[in-house]
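# nightly structure sweep
# worker-07 picked up a monomer target from the shared queue
# config: single-sequence mode, recycle default, output format = structure tokens
# input follows
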Amino acid sequence: MSWLPKKFVVVPVDFSEESIAAVETALALVASAANLHVLHVLPTIEPSDPEYLWTTADTPARQAHTEQALRERLADPKFAGVNLHVVFGEAGHGVADFAQEHHADLIVLPSHGRTGLSRLLIGSTAERVVRLAHCPVLVLRK
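# output follows
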């Protein structure tokens, strides 16, 4: 497998500094920013969820708000041309499913690795993506 350049690289972001740094790293792996796909996975909110009581749960509005927040967070000219996507679901499955549906060459994501002995080496979302992905996954650690 050739590492450079990739035609479709997915970078899931959670708005943390580590995830934005992953976008910067991924830029070095593609010939053009147009080959980079930044993805945010929003949790679905069901009427039975406690959050439903204090939110509008308006899916199109949540998606549009998140896309705008992504545009603002990635407003630096170095990110010009990257593709922004918002999907709904559980983060690990959402990332892996998006990558599979679009025949991604690579997923680049940070590992926060913050909790528990079982998450000592890799974060829970990163671990789930690695297990579910149908393409190579580059996990970045500090």
